[in-house]
Amino acid sequence: MALEIGLEGKMATKAVVPCVDTTVRCIEACERCAAECGTSGDREREKCAVLARDCADIASLSLTLMSRQSRYADAICAAHAQACVACGEMCAKFKHACCVECMNACRACAKECGAYHG
Q: Which residue from 110, 90, 112, 108 is spatially nearest to 34, judged by alpha carbons?
């Protein structure tokens, strides 16, 4: 993936690619977790689903803003990192495969994107 994204008026190098890649994996994992936990019938897992959906939505917005080199990308990416931390903590409470996958994806995304945008 040869993606170059300019943030805050400067061209980014290929260093942003790992952030984009982990964000895509985060969205996929959060959507799977939301689908499974949201239909589990367990109230706590349904809360997990809501948070996973929020994280996926914020992640999608961050990708959109990065791709158009928006001046707001850094702020939304910071919010996404916060959502990843919260979602990872919520998913850590459960041992279901979807939650473990989501937890790992969120933690990796928060670490990678936080390092790039921080």
A: 90
The residue ranges of every structural domain in the chain are: 11-117
d(CA 31, CA 12): 28
In this prediction, residue 76 has a pLDDT band, given cuts at 50, 70 and 90, of very high
Closest to 30 (Cα-Cα) out of 93, 81, 105, 89 = 105
Supply angle C-alpha 9, 57, 117, rounded to 5. 35
pLDDT band for position 104 (cuts 50, 70, 90): very high
Which segments within the chain are labelled E, that is strand?
A: 6-7, 10-11
* Cβ–Cβ under 8 Å, residues 59 and 80: yes
Q: CA 19, CA 25: separation in Å to the nearest integer?
A: 10
- The token pair that represents 4 in the structure block: 């170059």
Predicted pLDDT of residue 67: 86
Q: Which helix H or strand E contains 96, and what residues bound it?
A: none
* DSSP H or E segment with residue 8: none
Give, in words, the CATH class of 11-117. Answer: mainly alpha
